[in-house]
């Protein structure tokens, strides 16, 4: 037995040692703020071995050098490979029900309403927002109600902006809400669904790193940041929620994921509903 020599896991097509994992998770944190625990070694290998194959290289050190060099064509692929993009239409539906109530209330006193879907992934969240509002609030399509949808992953954002989904993505969704706002494909497009222009008009998609500069100037009335911060360290969470707070006025609302909470993270909000917070 050779003491101090790491045995390469035979499950790996490419040699992948602890030093590779440590370097990659450091780069992941640098570029995304996501903290990868030790249990994510296999996942990290799985995600980035695909990039090695795509680039035609066989050594993780070479790939790490590419990322460290700041390669503009590979960095987006590096980010896209590790970010998790699981989402669905009307996920945690109580948030969309509250959204409708809040926007209807705000429209009585405000001329413009700004909503932010932070970490929008492939678009199901902002489209669910828009369909809920269009269904429940008469005339909202002519009001100044805008949704900003941002994500770190440019590839998934492009998919969201196209607004095309497979029909089964809408399984379980309330047909009364969705039917007027989707167009089902025919012929070669059978099985595909295109979002209605009125829905798409309400949403602006932009690439944004939540840990980088924010170009937005107007405060947000409502922010959705759901199932995003679970990948961040507590220090990063504190920074992020304090920045959200700085971009909202008193009474503005914040929605987070069902497994997230602000206890010990940010004291600028008070809990008013199930994972629904109000800026104090």
UniProtKB/TrEMBL annotation:
Keywords of this entry: Methyltransferase, S-adenosyl-L-methionine, Transferase
Record InterPro entries: Bact_Chemotaxis_MeTrfase (IPR050903), Chemotaxis_MeTrfase_CheR (IPR026024), CheR_C (IPR022642), CheR_MeTrfase (IPR000780), CheR_N (IPR022641)
Pfam families given in the database record: CheR (PF01739), CheR_N (PF03705)
Claim: Methyltransferase is one of the keywords in the record: yes
EC numbers, comma separated: 2.1.1.80
Domain CheR-type methyltransferase: 9-280
Domain of life of the native organism: Bacteria
Main enzyme class: transferase
Known catalytic reactions: L-glutamyl-[protein] + S-adenosyl-L-methionine = [protein]-L-glutamate 5-O-methyl ester + S-adenosyl-L-homocysteine
Function: Methylation of the membrane-bound methyl-accepting chemotaxis proteins (MCP) to form gamma-glutamyl methyl ester residues in MCP.
PANTHER family: CHEMOTAXIS PROTEIN METHYLTRANSFERASE (PTHR24422:SF19)
The name this protein goes by in its record: Chemotaxis protein methyltransferase
């Amino acid at each position: 037995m050779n003491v101090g020599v790491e045995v390469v896991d035979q499950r790996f097509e490419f040699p992948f040692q602890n030093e590779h994992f440590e370097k990659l998770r450091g780069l992941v944190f640098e570029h995304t703020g996501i903290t990868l625990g030790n249990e994510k070694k296999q996942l990290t290998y799985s995600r980035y071995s695909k990039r090695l194959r795509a680039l035609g290289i066989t050594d993780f050190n070479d790939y790490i050098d590419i990322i460290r060099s700041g390669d503009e064509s590979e960095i987006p692929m590096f980010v896209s490979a590790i970010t998790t993009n699981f989402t669905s239409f009307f996920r945690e539906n109580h948030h969309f029900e509250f959204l409708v109530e809040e926007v209807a209330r705000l429209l009585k006193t405000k001329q413009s309403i700004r909503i932010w879907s932070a970490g929008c992934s492939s678009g199901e969240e902002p489209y669910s927002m828009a369909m809920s509002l269009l269904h429940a609030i008469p005339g909202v399509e002519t009001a100044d109600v805008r949704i900003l949808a941002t994500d770190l992953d440019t590839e998934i954002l492009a998919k969201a902006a196209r607004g095309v989904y497979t029909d089964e993505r809408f399984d379980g969704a309330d047909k009364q809400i969705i039917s007027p706002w989707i167009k089902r494909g025919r012929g070669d497009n059978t099985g595909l669904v295109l979002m209605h222009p009125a829905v798409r008009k309400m949403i602006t998609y932009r690439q944004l790193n939540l840990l980088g500069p924010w170009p937005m100037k107007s405060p947000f009335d409502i922010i959705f940041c759901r199932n995003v911060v679970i990948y961040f360290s507590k220090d990063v969470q504190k920074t992020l929620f304090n920045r959200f707070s700085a971009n909202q006025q008193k009474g503005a609302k914040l929605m987070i994921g069902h497994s997230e909470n602000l206890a010990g993270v940010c004291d600028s909000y008070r809990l008013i509903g199930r994972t629904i917070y109000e800026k104090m």
